[in-house]
Design brief:
single chain; alpha/beta; Rossmann fold; six-stranded parallel β-sheet; about 35% helix
């Protein structure tokens, strides 16, 4: 049946196939689709004891989380009990908002270790610069706190391995903040792919592009009250190279290799994780990254404004990631199979047959029930804590995304073709 909506170009994903009998009606009418209904979410929310949440890092990324967490106070039986930021002004702003909107009387901290030691905190949201994700996650797990950590899970592969080991050893629940994984259409696409519906998967293509009149493509607002003392600059640097206070580095940290990989870790991570989930992938075999500071060569920072990755996976397919911060025109987001193509749209996906297989592969229109939404992503973590529900973006999936992002970034920076050393779990020159 053909779709009646106008579809817009959106995401991409991909992987090889296993041939087997396939019943679309049986699959879509079964447990996978049902698991994503609003009713099933409601049955998990608030079913057990109240969950008390602490937020570490009260900047722009955490602001969106705060709005959703406030909405969840009654419906999901949660409470905002603690905020931590090295910049007092930010933490106080969060506390004031939570008090006004949810009647919360939260504790304020500068030292995240003190927040983790607070017995009133059940789980933490970590929304700090990327170079702090690993250490804070490990410390939270060792303190017995469940974790929602913003993407990427870690800045690099070595950190990711330590996080995976610690989370599994401690048994805490950890949700990696790729909230697109709370859109079930990628899992549904994975079922079609596993059943061989579109044949052997060969290529995935996806982009994440933006545009602006100024070279501020990460859209970060500055605060004139920030200084070396007010933000505890040396503590903020952590394990990164020591430097004098630099407001550009503090506010625009995504544009410096010391703290981020820019497009790769801030944007591509959203896209490649969808591909990995849809296609059942793990680690890439080889990767290459190209691009540069093409639009704004004199802009602050190190990271490029245009970046492209080609990642070859051992299953026999290529993942293509495309981005420009100087042109927002999207490309089709799709998974190309030998017999058909999955086109992702804002409302789900469409499977279209290759012409020569039109008698074998029928068009499919799938309308998703979840969405790319931090509220749903927190709700899933809460269900995992309360009743052992399966996490939508667990640490292993977070690890695969980190490797994909870093292998392309290392290739770009070194201008070398890179590969994954499976035995030693590290990236090396090909």
């Amino acid at each position: 049946m053909r779709s009646r909506f106008r579809w817009i170009r959106y995401p991409v994903y991909n992987f090889p196939m296993v041939s087997s009998s396939f019943s679309r009606r049986g699959f879509l009418g079964g447990a996978t689709a049902a698991a994503w209904t609003a009713r099933s979410w409601a049955q998990t929310a608030g079913a057990n004891n109240k969950l008390r949440v602490g937020i570490i890092g009260c900047g722009g990324m955490a602001t969106g989380h705060l709005g959703n967490l406030v909405k969840m106070k009654e419906s999901d039986n949660i409470e905002l009990v603690a905020f931590c930021d090295l910049f007092d002004k930010r933490a106080q702003k969060f506390a004031d908002f939570a008090k006004e909107k949810a009647g919360a009387t939260a504790k304020l901290f500068k030292d995240y270790h003190a927040l983790l030691a607070d017995k009133d905190v059940d789980y933490v949201l970590i929304a700090t610069p990327e170079h702090w994700h690993a250490q804070m996650t490990i410390d939270a797990a060792l303190a017995g706190k469940h974790v929602y950590c913003e993407k990427p899970m870690t800045l690099n592969v070595e950190q990711a391995k330590k996080v995976v080991a610690t989370v599994k050893k401690t048994g805490i629940k950890m949700q990696v903040g790729v909230q697109g994984m709370s859109d079930e259409s990628y899992q549904v696409a994975n079922q079609y792919i596993k059943e061989g519906y579109i044949g052997k998967v060969l290529l995935a293509q996806i982009d994440y592009s933006r545009n602006s009149k100024e070279p501020d493509h990460m859209y970060t607002k500055e605060d004139p009250d920030a200084s070396a003392s007010s933000v505890e600059w040396n503590t903020w640097l952590g394990g990164a190279p020591k430097r004098a206070f630099d407001k550009d580095r503090y506010f625009h940290w995504r544009r410096f290799w010391d703290y981020s990989s820019g497009i790769a870790s801030d944007l591509f991570i959203h896209r490649v994780t969808r591909i990995i989930k849809s296609c059942g992938l793990t680690f890439p075999e080889r990767g290459v990254g190209t691009g540069g500071k093409f639009c704004w060569p004199d802009a602050i920072g190190d990271v490029p404004d245009t970046l492209n990755f080609l990642l070859d996976y051992p299953e026999g397919m290529t993942v293509q990631l495309v981005s420009s911060m100087g042109n927002a025109t999207a490309i089709d987001h799709m998974i190309r199979g030998h017999k058909g193509t999955i086109h992702f749209t804002p409302t789900g996906f469409i499977i279209k047959p290759e012409r020569i297989f039109a008698s074998e592969v029928k068009e499919v229109v799938y309308e998703k029930k979840g969405s790319e939404n931090t509220l749903l992503h927190h709700r899933n973590l809460q269900a995992a804590i309360r009743s052992g529900a399966e996490l939508n973006c667990p640490v292993d999936l977070g690890y695969y995304g980190v490797v994909a992002a870093q292998i392309g970034s290392m290739s770009y920076r070194q201008r070398k073709y890179m590969m994954w050393d499976k035995a030693k779990e590290r990236i090396v020159k090909a």
